Amino acid sequence: MICRRSHAQRGxxxxxxxxxxxxxxIAFVALMKVAGASISLTSSATQYSDAAMWARxxxxxxxxxxxxxxxxxxxxxxxxxRWQLRVTPWNGAGNPPATAPLRLYQLDLDVLWGPPxxxxxxxxxxxxxxxxxxxxxxxx
Length: 140
Prior knowledge:
alpha+beta; four-stranded antiparallel beta sheet; 1 helix; rod-shaped
């Protein structure tokens, strides 16, 4: 009895291996793009979180123990973050009587970071109850 071997081969051909490697490379590139976008979003979220932290600190401490000063001011928190604050009387409920001991003021704060040509920004707004600023009268 003569034993014949089957001519069918078992295993992968070179073409199948190249196709599998190509699919793996495409999947790897797609995953790297997703990972890069995720890192970018995380960085952006961190910057917005830092801006909110700086804003909260400035707005919580603004005009505590001192009268409100109507107008605009600006400054820097650190090397990366800068701010612009606008204080205006709030007239949402109409003009208060001149003898009112307290008035509402709107504080609008813009926190900016990034390059000055194309800064990123976050806007924060709050109301502050305070005594009206004292008006100095000139002596006759």
